Sequence to fold (1420 residues):
Amino acid sequence: MHPALLIAAADVPALRQGLTRYPLLEKSYAALRKTADKALASPIVVPVPKDPAGGYTHEQHTRNYYAMQAAGISYQMTRDVKYARFVRDMLLEYSKLIPTLKNHPEAKSSSPGRLFHQALNDCNWVVYSIQGYDAVYETLTPAERTKIENGAFRPLCNFFTQDLKPWFDLVHNHGVWAAAAVGMTGYALHDDKLINLALHGSAGTDKSGFLAQLNGLFSPEGYYTEGPYYSRYALSPFFMFAQAIDNNQPALKIFQYRDKILQKALNSSLQLTNNDGRYYPLNDALKEKDWTTQELVGAISIAAEHYGVDPTMLGVVQLQKKVLVSAGGLEVAKALQAAGKNLPEFQRVSQVYRDGATGAEGGLAVLRTGPQTDQTSLLFKYTAHGLSHGHYDKLGIVLYDKGREVLQDYGAVRFLNVEAKEGGRYLPETHSFASQTVAHNTLVVDEASNFGGREKEAEEHSGKAWFASIANARVQVASAKADDAYPGVAMQRTVALFTDSLSQKPLVLDVLRAQSATEHQYDLPFYYQGQLISTSFAYDRPANQQPLGPKNGYQHLWREAVGKPVRTPGVATLTWLSGPQFYSMTTATDTATHLVMARIGANDPKFNLRPEPVLLVREKAKNQVFASVIEAHGEFNPTAETAAGSHSNVRSVAVLYDGADATVVEVQLARGGTYRLAIANQDAAPGASHEVRVAGQPLRWQGPYVFRHF
Amino acid sequence: MHPALLIAAADVPALRQGLTRYPLLEKSYAALRKTADKALASPIVVPVPKDPAGGYTHEQHTRNYYAMQAAGISYQMTRDVKYARFVRDMLLEYSKLIPTLKNHPEAKSSSPGRLFHQALNDCNWVVYSIQGYDAVYETLTPAERTKIENGAFRPLCNFFTQDLKPWFDLVHNHGVWAAAAVGMTGYALHDDKLINLALHGSAGTDKSGFLAQLNGLFSPEGYYTEGPYYSRYALSPFFMFAQAIDNNQPALKIFQYRDKILQKALNSSLQLTNNDGRYYPLNDALKEKDWTTQELVGAISIAAEHYGVDPTMLGVVQLQKKVLVSAGGLEVAKALQAAGKNLPEFQRVSQVYRDGATGAEGGLAVLRTGPQTDQTSLLFKYTAHGLSHGHYDKLGIVLYDKGREVLQDYGAVRFLNVEAKEGGRYLPETHSFASQTVAHNTLVVDEASNFGGREKEAEEHSGKAWFASIANARVQVASAKADDAYPGVAMQRTVALFTDSLSQKPLVLDVLRAQSATEHQYDLPFYYQGQLISTSFAYDRPANQQPLGPKNGYQHLWREAVGKPVRTPGVATLTWLSGPQFYSMTTATDTATHLVMARIGANDPKFNLRPEPVLLVREKAKNQVFASVIEAHGEFNPTAETAAGSHSNVRSVAVLYDGADATVVEVQLARGGTYRLAIANQDAAPGASHEVRVAGQPLRWQGPYVFRHF
Fold:
């Protein structure tokens, strides 16, 4: 029976009826039909591949696959054969072109494409075009089918599974797209060989293929190992192929697989967005991407069919203004209409995600507090490396105030699909800067990146969760270690997000402890976002600017100023303004602390980088504890011409005790009293008792930490 | 009769009734009453002045004057004597404090204040406090009145008119505030001497004072000589004092004065905002300021009383969410309610403003095209200097696409009311960078500013309108000259905003002609806003960064890269991305053209500047014509993952003819044909005939210019 990929033949009558009842379904279909009609009104153009992403042939082939998918659905909804003829005619053109193709002239990676510069886009082409083919299959003569299958789909599937076999077997988002392309083709062509390759990998042993990908790419909580931005991208083939599997092999119970891992994957993907719905830009990522993206439209609709409609996602659907034209999309459109204006709010919550298939490869702690509309969110990343798009950012933090970046992750250096920026590819500075350790809010030892910047080595080690406590909204604490990122240097970072009754916003206390037998230069960067307002410390600002270092990302930072070490230990505060809000970072200093002010943009021949600032706290030591507080304060309102509270409320941050057993840090606020955080360094067992002497007095506690207010 | 300043006693019954009928009036009053009630619930605190702007005593005295104004109105609306007592008690405190004061300890200007660091704020204090006093006047005993008048208001008025007499007599926004303070006090105290000082200046000859200000600060079209940002600020005392005059001396017909100059002033102030309602940042200005500002609430309400409600301003009122609690505010609230949801849109139109009292001091051309929601706006400034807040930007241009800056004016370097930024004052870089010629999109000769950066000299010369034609929305052209800004260099700039049927947005053709008997270095900066995407020219980017020059603003620019001169004349294009839109600037080049890429931020010890880019087109010549096109093109949509049209559509820009009589420039578009602009350089008479030879052919036209499409 056809269709049987995203839409099953049995769904069609209900879908047609739904079009007349549920406005969002109708609107979603109308958009597809408009795409189809527009394509039908133009001549069929199937150009010889030539241009990189953003260029003409790239865009034309992309338009074509969307047009074929849209025409296929339009045919199923209307039974108007003009749509079927369009798909047929275009696929016949492709069946003439594809057998003539060698690798794309702009191909530069190890996985070249034929229609596009990379095989990934060829997979996209198959995933969408095969839906068109499947939808009009019944209208085609056997001869036409043979031509199309042998001329277009089989050659590409053979190319993926044979020519690019190692790539096809990757447990990686490309691999998921490849599996979906091959598997969906297998169902449409009734080709068990293709289906098995897709499901079980080229060796048929489930070391690769779709099941291996479901097993290997998500943690038990559904955290996608490449990070939030790629989770969104991978969800698309995961859900589309799963839907096709379920329509053809329901006995596989693919949506129940691994304790409903696909549901968890969707939930964690939605959770890992900031308060504006934009994906957290961990690892290679573009900051503009948000949860209205097309991939999530499909995932939410498909998930609704198999897990029921989640009412807290309806608000997202409303922003997306779209559903999939499928049985699941029908359910979502129906639920949205029934809900009317009373849409329950999507709840972003604190959560500790483990990484790795078994959850043993570190993780990501997301600490959140405040109402949904005014939430402070702190990310603490001690995951595995994250495959080829991973960054060397062990123990990095990122801080948001609502959707506003307070301490940013740079993301990737890329202008998606902008032809003039290397065809929209990742730019060289993604590797030379954005992925390097110094591009993140985490410790850099001796101006090198974690694992020497070697991906293979980085893949072998993850951070290690030490403890986390997120149950109390007023004080959330997470701690993790990384002992492998730098040879001979043990690192532990502990972050606390806490509310103080006299402070308008939550505060972050950040304690990063480095231990080594030998002396190192330790740099702790804080990529604050905004305009510098004031510093508590004096600095030299030279008249000329030089790069901060020769390599490992330092070559991309302009050295703007260097703060002078102070005579007595104390604190250094840097205050900045972002939108209507002042922020300060206050860090404990000693007589050796150098405060380095720098700006991104050096050695950037094509002006690919954004000129954003960073403060590096620099120490030379064997053992060092960096203790810092980040706070929001005051308000700047240029319309009302008021500005208040432009000074930090932190009077001091100090390390009161540091030993192999424990570290104790104290924060004194100018208003709001004093806080102490004691951290167990060697025994994080909940029942373990700890005692250290602080200022001559014993400090006792049980469990991995204690946080007290005086 | 009291009250008789912003509210006349006779207005009170209708206002009270209006509160129950017109929600916006009620809401506006409720906010005032809340301010009053909050103040009444706290102890009266009148601290000894100590802090600069943003600091505690500054903010407290500001709160106090707003509280007294609010309590005065609350008393009039309720007749509850608690409000009257509050005003009385606070003014009695001030009457004890003020006589003890010397100049403010933080005073740094030549017009120091007593309660505040500058006299301007003391005037603000009087203007608001006197309204409170006036409102509760009838409740006070003669002894109380004497204490308050002699202790608080007279000493400050004497201070302004005697100690600061030269300042009081300034025809300048400070002078308007001073006149309003003294004049409103005069009416409240029934003191003709103060009234006359305020109206006619300290010499009583109308060389200074309010009438002189009405005569001198506005052009015949209502353009305020200090520029849009200060128009907004000055409108407040202009309208408040005018209202007080009208309530006390209606025979003066102040709202009819100078052919209703106040109405024209308000209209031009609203017109000189970008499509987001933000004031164009010409001269010293903060970019955040928009037309919802409090000053315009008052001006719109007062104008409505005297000129009738302008329905196209009701949309602004709706954004302001406020009216004045006055007879005019009542009219506005009534009109808004009557209009319901059908508010006519405010219409920003093309307009040529003359500058100077008689319109003889140059002007500002505002060329606009497109629907109100998608308007392109080009400002061309050849005004007088603009008093102490003026910038050295003769013949400067600024370009907007909707509310988005395409070619920016930097504005001023200031963080309003931010205590940590020098108390919120103008920062030194306002003078050393933002006001200098090189900080603007206009010609810099020999790395110096117009008039050697000397304000006195700059005040003596304005730009000169040459011609302007704004009647045809598809082609608008303006031309102006400036022969005094640089000794021995005559400058003429002509800008055309035109639409091309195959281009998605209007284009700007910019022709700047410099003529001199001796060779000069000519720099033409373009402060493009956004991320550089590509350049058509090669450049050297050194590994280290140095300031572009030693002074006149050049010291604040980092030299990022220098484009190499080309072997054959042609064009250089720079493309950038801002939000969803690509833009390009394409300029004609010859074998001597250097393209200098720079960024703001050098020699900025306190990090006061924003790190924004600029492209300088540099020539060494006696006579030079810079011909450039600025265009919007393509679209970047990261959510849909599409990017199209990232390449400029301009194939060439060339000067076909340049002579004493005329200049002819040609633009060839890759799509859309060829345009020629011929400009008469010596005779701009509408009837004059011109003929030049272009490429061997005669080109004939009549009038100051011709613009043709091939």
In short: Chain B has three domains: 1-209, 217-342, 351-709.
